[in-house]
Write a sequence for this structure.
């Protein structure tokens, strides 16, 4: 195992980790407000295609990123409309959103398959820091979206746990009637949270097509949306733990193509099962531990709220 | 007694201040029910004012009008002499009225401080600052609490203090508490009394809903008594009255619907409960050595203030709640560990307190609900005989006069009275030997009440042993052959309903067993 | 200021679900029309072609029916759990697990007579699907672990298990080192029915009908209804919730596994990681549209089969097959909206109405 390959592994771990983290943060925000959105895969696909297509036409990666965020948020709001306004079953609506997002992204991207990227989000220039051994490539040679993910993590933590708005968001996810009685608009909070979640998923999608592999192919999300859903549980709905989980799951993604280079005789496919099995394990532990204390899962998660039916 | 329509003016003679709260001729109707029929209330600033009344007297509705949860159909609400029309609880809070509901509105996973701050705080929440501010507020009113503890770790009494803190945090000058002591231990109730006193001395006004007389006489200044949605006594000075007068005002004399059935020979013991103990949902003792017997051909009534173990008693006898110790015997056999299905087969009919959701499945059809207990009989191999079940249901519906739509439609559309007829009919159709009926007539209209009562009486005539739990003392006095009073999870007194005096029963219900006829009658009658 | 609110109707509108479904279909076709015009196609011709290819003649019907088989069985799997208020989101993986079981039997039973082999394969498929649901079932019944997440996670595990097998042990030595499992032996193939339709159509129809009968006519189905309506009522009636949750989830997995076995034996040449093809997820939509009723599942599955087959056929006209994917999702969204409006009506209220009644 050479130093270069190890650095490459760590670099890829951070890169994949940030990708997963962006999407997982979004899902976490929605779930904290009480909305389970199984449409992450679809929202990421919409972000990915929008980012790529807008980059083709505008040539500006930042405009493309903004458009991707907007597209993710818009699709997220569709889930919000059905689950919050109409009170539809969140599981069904979310899965339909995944199907819709995958279909719509394929439709919108049909003319862009195989075309070179119109613009890319290239690494941020950190000056001499980039030349540091190890830390340089791993920490300072990354796409701007990696740093955006870090900022988003801190921002999410701050807003949710240190502001009045965050208090209301968490209350909406724990006990909608309590939040309502305290004078907060549960519907407004939940819609906003789903939109933010969609926006972050859109950003994660744009990361795929503007940074990681700057091209558009159908199915580019490749199940990473499901990992994001898993991460929220693995991280017990806390930004810090979700970040650790994102790096861990990112490591398994990075290792997948590198196991053989390291001379490890273990199937990369079996390795890629690990995040899902770990998540199931964590969920079981959470359930056992929450027999005599509240679960870290938001208590009102998945439950529609109508004032007259409390 | 005071004339209800011309309430005595509580205007502070020395200061001439207007009353903190004035509610004039308040009417509030719900479909099929008139909850408030011209209720009046005047509360002097700086006092602790009790609003008394039996269940269904309209206390909670009146307080919900005061705190903006409901809008009154008619009538006026004045706070410190200014008329208000509250549309939301937030409106009421802005005017200084805060309410503590029976069901707490708290987020269990939040800390005390977070729950308090949820109502109002700065955009940026600095934890330590909020915690110390909440702590300071709590200290000021003697509300012992730890602001950084999560609410799920707190006892009911502590949670209630958080609810009070929430109101004070929003600067409520008038605090309304809906039966605050219902969830408290006696010690906690005394502490609460001290806190409320403290708040009144601080210049705030406390409106306190209760039906526990000793609390009213213990720490309230004035009391208003409601009955049937009206004020029957307004702003009595507690010092000038006593528990007996208040009790008779509360109970009044309501029209008797059902005639008292003629006395009848009783037979063998069919239901016997010995030294039964079990915890409630919170793990506190609900039944604490309960003893009782019911014989063939008698109706035994259970009276008591809500939350003294009546619910758990009915559930343990039906087999829906595990017991800690003690035994339940049906028809002479020990059935303490039998399943609900076995007990039904033994001849136990059970009419649970919660009709929809326990006794009946709301989304299922009339037929499906009718065969809930007996579907095993309509089996043919693995199949259910649908025609047989429908016939069975037809008979049931005919015999018990249930008015339904098509039998295959969900029962959710049936009226309360018809739901209860269906449920009671299902439990009685086989001629059970023992019937446990928990609040069987609650919330029904006059005809519905009469129908259910008649059914219970005819079971008694047929030789069944009937245990009737009710919050309606008139019902118990009319139907019961023996009246047992339950308090703190045990039977504390037994009365002969034909001779017992209401106020004596009332005293027993609040745990003053010294005045009751037989402090240990439960022991005597069960041996 | 006034704003719209949803007010519960006293009476649910008549015709409910079929109507909602029809409205959903119309919404989907209208949006599809916009998409088609947007990409420069004649929508009427495209829709006409979709109809012809899926329902136009017996051959088209046979292809559509084949497609409706995994959709219907997956939908049934979800509906079985859904009738008790449980969510089996793992049909996708259970289909794979079923296919693994069936493929395994096909590997060891190559010499067996066809009926024996196929029966054994389908039995192994049911077992495989049930086995994948076993963990979530036990966890839910005993510890109360949310079955939505556990079943969802196991999807990804099952798909990777297939990948692992076809990359390793099950790799066909004659595949020029491509990660492909060997072709199924001929005696492992389900017999044909008419045109392209295979015998799985009959089997799926029978299973769906069986469940329809079981749900509506047996004591077991009755207990399921009671438990699904109210847990407390079920206890009162003497029904063990724990056992019901467990059997229902395992059975649900078994049905999805059965779908995998039939898909392998009837429609696929060999087991591949693409075998489940989104059927498990589509099954959730099918079940939701059918209101968790087996009878409805068959009808909705047929329609979804037609949309999918029609969608494939228009690729030759240069239309992206994604249009049919979009249509499927939109049918559901349209139907949800219509379903809600059959139970609620929209009213404008002034300001903040916070009055609660009852």
């Amino acid at each position: 195992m050479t130093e270069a390959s190890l650095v490459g592994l760590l670099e890829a771990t951070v890169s994949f980790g940030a990708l997963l983290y962006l999407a997982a943060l979004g899902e976490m925000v929605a779930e904290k407000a009480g909305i389970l959105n199984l449409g992450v895969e679809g929202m990421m696909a919409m972000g990915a295609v929008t980012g790529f297509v807008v980059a083709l036409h505008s040539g500006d990666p930042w405009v493309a990123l903004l458009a991707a965020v907007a597209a993710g948020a818009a699709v997220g709001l569709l889930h919000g409309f059905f689950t919050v306004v109409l009170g539809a079953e969140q599981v069904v609506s979310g899965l339909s959103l995944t199907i819709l997002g995958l279909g719509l992204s394929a439709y919108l991207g049909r003319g862009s398959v195989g075309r070179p990227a119109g613009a890319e989000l290239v690494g941020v220039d950190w000056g001499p820091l980039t030349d540091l051994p190890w830390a340089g490539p791993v920490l300072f040679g990354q796409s701007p979206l990696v740093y955006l993910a870090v900022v988003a993590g801190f921002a999410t933590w701050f807003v949710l746990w240190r502001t009045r708005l965050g208090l209301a968001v968490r209350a909406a996810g724990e006990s909608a009637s309590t939040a309502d009685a305290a004078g907060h608009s549960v519907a407004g909070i939940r819609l906003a949270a789903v939109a933010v979640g969609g926006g972050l998923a859109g950003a994660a999608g744009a990361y795929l097509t503007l940074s990681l592999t700057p091209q558009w192919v159908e199915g580019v999300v490749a199940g990473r949306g499901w990992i994001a859903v898993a991460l929220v549980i693995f991280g017990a709905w806390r930004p810090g733990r979700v970040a650790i989980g994102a790096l861990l799951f990112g490591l398994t993604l990075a290792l997948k193509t590198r196991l053989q280079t390291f001379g490890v005789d273990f199937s990369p496919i079996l390795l890629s099962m690990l995040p899902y099995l770990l998540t199931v394990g964590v969920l079981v532990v959470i359930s056992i531990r929450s027999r005599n204390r509240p679960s870290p899962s938001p208590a009102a998660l998945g439950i529609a709220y109508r004032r007259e039916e409390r | 007694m005071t004339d209800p329509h011309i309430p005595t003016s509580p205007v502070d003679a020395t200061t001439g201040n207007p009353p903190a709260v004035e509610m004039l001729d308040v009417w509030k109707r719900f479909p099929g029910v008139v909850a408030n029929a011209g209720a009046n209330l005047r509360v002097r600033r700086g006092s602790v004012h009790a609003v008394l009344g039996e269940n269904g007297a309209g206390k909670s509705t009146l307080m919900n009008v005061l705190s903006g949860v409901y809008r009154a159909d008619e009538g006026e609400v004045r706070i410190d002499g200014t008329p208000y029309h509250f549309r939301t609880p937030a409106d009421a809070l802005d005017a200084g009225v805060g309410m503590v509901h029976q069901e707490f509105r708290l987020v269990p996973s939040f800390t005390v401080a977070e729950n308090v701050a949820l109502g109002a705080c700065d955009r940026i929440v600095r934890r330590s600052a909020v915690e110390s501010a909440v702590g300071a507020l709590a200290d000021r009113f003697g509300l012992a609490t730890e602001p950084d503890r999560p609410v799920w770790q707190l006892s009911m009494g502590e949670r209630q203090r958080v609810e009070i803190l929430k109101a004070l945090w929003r600067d409520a000058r008038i605090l309304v508490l809906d039966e605050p002591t219902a969830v408290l231990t006696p010690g906690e109730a005394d502490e609460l009394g001290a806190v409320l006193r403290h708040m009144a001395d601080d210049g705030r006004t406390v409106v306190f809903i209760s039906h526990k007389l000793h609390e009213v006489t213990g720490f309230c200044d004035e009391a208003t008594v409601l009955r049937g949605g009206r004020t029957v006594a307004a702003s009595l000075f507690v010092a000038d009255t006593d528990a007996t007068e208040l009790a008779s005002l509360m109970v009044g004399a309501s029209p008797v619907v059902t005639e008292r059935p003629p006395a009848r020979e009783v037979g063998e013991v069919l239901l016997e409960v010995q030294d039964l103990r079990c915890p409630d949902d919170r793990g506190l003792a609900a039944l604490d050595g309960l003893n009782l017997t019911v014989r063939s051909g008698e109706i035994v009534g259970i009276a008591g203030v809500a939350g003294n173990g009546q619910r758990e008693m009915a559930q343990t006898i039906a087999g829906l709640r595990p017991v800690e110790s003690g035994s339940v015997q049906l028809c002479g056999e020990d059935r303490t560990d039998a399943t609900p299905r076995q007990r039904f087969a033994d001849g136990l009919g059970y009419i649970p307190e919660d009709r929809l959701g326990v006794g009946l499945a709301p989304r299922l059809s009339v037929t499906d609900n009718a065969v809930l207990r007996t579907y095993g009989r309509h089996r043919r191999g693995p199949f259910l005989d649908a025609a047989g079940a429908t016939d069975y249901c037809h008979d049931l519906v005919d015999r018990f006069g249930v008015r339904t739509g098509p039998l295959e439609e969900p029962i959710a559309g049936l009226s309360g009275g018809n739901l209860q007829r269906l449920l009671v009919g299902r439990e009685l159709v086989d001629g059970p030997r023992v019937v446990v009926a928990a609040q069987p007539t609650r919330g029904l209209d006059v005809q519905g009440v009469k129908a259910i009562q008649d059914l219970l009486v005819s079971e008694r005539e047929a030789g069944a042993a009937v245990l009737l739990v009710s919050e309606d003392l008139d019902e118990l006095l009319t139907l019961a052959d023996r009246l047992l009073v339950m308090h703190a999870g045990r039977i504390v007194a037994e009365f002969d309903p034909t001779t017992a005096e209401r106020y004596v029963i009332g005293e027993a219900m609040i745990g003053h067993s010294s005045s009751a006829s037989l402090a240990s009658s439960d022991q005597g009658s069960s041996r | 200021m006034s704003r719209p609110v949803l007010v519960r109707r006293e009476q649910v509108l008549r015709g409910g679900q079929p109507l909602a479904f029809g409205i959903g279909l119309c919404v989907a076709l209208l949006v599809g029309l916009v998409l088609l015009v947007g990409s420069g196609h004649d929508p009427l011709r495209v829709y006409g072609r979709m109809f012809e290819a899926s329902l136009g003649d017996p051959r088209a019907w046979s292809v559509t029916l084949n497609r409706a088989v995994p959709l219907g069985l997956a939908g049934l799997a979800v509906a079985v759990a859904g009738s008790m208020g449980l969510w089996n989101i793992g049909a996708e993986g259970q289909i794979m697990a079923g296919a693994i079981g069936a493929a395994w039997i096909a590997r060891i039973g190559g010499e067996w007579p066809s009926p024996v082999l196929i029966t054994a394969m389908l039995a192994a498929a049911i077992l495989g699907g049930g086995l994948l649901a076993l963990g979530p079932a036990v966890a839910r019944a005993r510890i109360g672990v949310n079955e939505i997440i556990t079943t969802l996670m196991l999807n990804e595990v099952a798909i990777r298990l297939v990948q692992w097998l076809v990359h390793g042990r099950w790799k066909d030595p004659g595949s020029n080192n491509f990660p492909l499992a060997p072709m199924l032996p001929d005696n492992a193939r389900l017999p044909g029915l008419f045109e392209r339709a295979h015998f799985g159509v009959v089997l799926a129809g029978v299973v769906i009908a069986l469940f329809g009968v079981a749900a509506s006519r047996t004591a077991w189905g009755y207990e399921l209804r009671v438990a699904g309506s109210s847990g407390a009522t079920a206890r009162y009636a003497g029904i063990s919730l724990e056992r019901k949750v467990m059997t229902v989830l395992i059975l649900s997995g078994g049905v999805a596994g059965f779908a995998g076995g039939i898909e392998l034996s009837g429609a696929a040449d060999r087991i591949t990681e693409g075998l489940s093809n989104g059927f498990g997820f589509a099954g959730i939509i099918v079940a939701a549209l059918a209101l968790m009723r087996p009878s409805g599942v068959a009808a909705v599955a047929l329609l979804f089969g037609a949309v999918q087959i029609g969608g494939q056929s228009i690729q030759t006209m240069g239309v992206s097959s994604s249009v049919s994917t979009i249509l499927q999702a939109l049918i559901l969204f349209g139907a949800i909206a219509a379903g809600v409006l059959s139970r609620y009506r929209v009213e404008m209220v002034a300001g903040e109405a916070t009055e609660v009644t009852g």
Observations:
- The first strand of chain C starts at residue 2 and ends at 8.
